[in-house]
Write a structure and sequence with these properties.
Blueprint lengths: L13 E2 L1 H8 L3 H10 L6 E3 L3 E5 H10 L9
Antiparallel strand pairs: 1-3, 2-3
Helix pairs in contact: 1-2
Length: 73
């Protein structure tokens, strides 16, 4: 019998802080700072210590920061 199962190559929707920082090309410390003071991407708290970011939320946050000039608010 031939195994026709395909390996799961789809990207995982939830990322660790390190993966999310790499996805956004920012330091992990910057992402941690956003969590503490606000203004960063939405995240999920799973249990007491586990933090995860959804890829769609990272993209939405990055898109919300688009500007054409330094004078845009």
């Amino acid at each position: 019998m031939i195994d026709t199962a395909q390996p799961d190559t789809a990207p995982r929707p939830y990322l660790t802080p390190a993966e999310a920082a790499a996805h956004l090309s920012i330091p992990v410390r910057t992402l941690e700072s956003y969590r503490k003071r606000g203004g960063g991407p939405v995240y999920r708290k799973l249990g007491l210590k586990t933090v995860r970011y959804h890829r769609d939320d990272l993209t939405a946050w990055a898109e919300a920061g688009k500007r054409r000039s330094v004078h845009e608010c």
